[in-house]
Specification:
By secondary structure, this protein is α/β, with parallel strands linked by helices. It has 16 helices and 16 strands. An eight-stranded mixed sheet has the order 5-6-2-1-7-8-9-10, with helices on both faces. It has a six-stranded parallel sheet with strand order 13-12-11-14-15-16. It has a two-stranded antiparallel ribbon with strand order 3-4. Helix 2 packs parallel to helix 3, helix 5 packs across helix 6 and helix 12 packs across helix 15. The longest helix is centred in the N-terminal third of the chain and has 20 residues.
Length: about 425
């Protein structure tokens, strides 16, 4: 079958030197191509993480014989939450429409991510015109999640500004062939906007993580040398706590920095490694300037991530208290669990909270520096308990988050639409 995947914000296999981490759409594309399908992934020329253009104009690039990425020229933006990003979303949708209607090689099915709403709606409209099934993948509760970043007194004004966006969302959801999402809550959110009952076309597919292959001897040596140069290495006498991700508005590192202060004063054997870049990096670095047990590495590549997962003990999930993160585990747990890391979660309820407690693969610190410091101090003194959490984490990954399992199931689901029409 021929399938179009529409997602404009992820890293692609062409980013950097080909060492960027592939995410959900990239993993789905890989699985579908390996199953023999012809895949076109529509995305932006604009790199969401680096805030720069990959190509100057619309460009189609081969990943493998039956898998290509169609880069659509974007407008670009410097802040992820900004007017320029909204403009970019609108212009991207218009450009997609222009290119898609010119493409004579029509797909058998389309999987479109939400967000962006504008692209998803254009995909659904395209499907309606040509009789092609379109499945929406609810990845983010946009625009509902935006309210969490603004004071309460502005929310009424925002709701007026979002009326066109919500209308487009309802149009997309109500005319989609099926709705899938990361959790039942995400699927139900899409169904509510479709104003219909849930049916057999609506399914949950978690945010899977692709457990990377072992590094070559040279790659491993280089990566371990990198971490040693940062004075970071495997040490059973030290609990190594890491964060991997974009340092922006979605996370709150202040309780982590405060916990590091408490642990340093107690001379507890725990160390924090914060990996990534973003708009709040400098601010958080300044807040932690006098601490020797917290280290900011900046952006790291996938080889360094693989190595770090082998030497670390605990992965931080310091989400803000937003519906977007309460209702879904997100992509961090799968990544951490693939390396057998216990999870330290900021939230005190929700999807990931339930998983952690059911499978006993981590703990919640309720966004309290004191509680986080206490838990880490106790785990540094009770290595056996920590190792049990880590083993439970690996088992949880295999049970819930292994991308090879999750996305092969998703592929079978998509194939069912096409086979039923033949």
């Amino acid at each position: 079958m021929k399938i179009w995947l529409i997602q404009r914000s992820e890293s692609t296999p062409h980013d950097g030197l080909g060492d960027a981490r592939i995410m959900r759409t990239g993993m789905i594309a890989k699985v579908l191509a390996e199953r023999g399908h012809t895949v076109i992934w529509w995305t932006s020329t604009f790199n969401h993480f680096k805030h720069c253009h990959r190509y100057k104009t619309d460009t189609r690039v081969e990943v493998s014989n039956n898998y290509h990425i169609q880069y659509v020229r974007g407008f670009g933006y410097q802040k992820n939450l900004s007017i320029s990003r909204i403009i970019d979303n609108i212009l991207m949708a218009r450009r997609f429409k222009l290119l898609a209607y010119k493409d004579t090689d029509k797909p058998d099915i389309i999987l479109a991510s939400v967000p962006t709403i504008e692209l998803a709606r254009e995909a659904v409209q395209y499907g309606l015109k040509f009789g092609i099934p379109v499945v929406l993948d609810i990845r983010d509760l946009w625009p509902d999640v935006i309210y969490d970043f603004f004071p309460t007194y502005l929310r009424s004004l925002l709701s007026l500004a979002f009326i066109p966006m919500v209308w487009q969302l309802k149009q997309a959801c109500s005319h989609a062939t099926g709705i899938v999402g990361l959790t039942d809550a995400f699927v139900d959110w899409g169904i509510a906007h479709a104003d219909r009952s849930r049916n057999t076309n609506d399914r949950v597919f978690r945010m899977g993580y692709w457990s990377e292959k072992e590094l070559t001897e040279k790659q491993e040596e280089f990566s371990y040398n990198f971490w040693q140069s940062q004075e970071i290495e495997k040490n059973d006498d030290c609990v190594l706590v890491i964060f991997l991700g974009t340092l922006g508005q979605s996370f709150d590192l202040i309780p982590i920095i405060e916990a590091a202060k408490i642990l340093q004063e107690k001379k507890s054997n725990a160390k924090f490694i914060i990996c990534g870049s973003g708009v709040k990096l400098t601010f958080w670095q300044n807040q932690a300037a006098n601490l020797s047990n917290i280290h900011f590495t900046g952006w790291i590549d996938k080889h360094e991530i693989i190595t770090l997962l082998k030497i670390a003990d605990i992965g931080l999930a310091p989400y803000i208290n937003s519906i977007n993160y309460v209702d879904t585990p997100g992509n961090k747990p799968g990544e951490y669990m693939s390396g057998g890391l216990a999870i330290a979660l900021s939230l005190e309820n929700g999807s990931l909270y339930d998983i952690i407690h059911e499978y006993e693969c981590g703990f919640s610190y309720h966004n309290s520096p004191e509680l986080l410091a206490y838990e880490l101090d106790q785990l540094s003194k009770n290595r056996e308990r920590l190792e049990t959490m880590k083993q439970n984490s690996i088992a949880t990954f295999k049970n819930l988050f292994d991308a090879k399992v999750v996305y092969n199931q998703l592929a079978e689901y998509l194939e069912s639409f096409v086979s039923s029409e033949n």
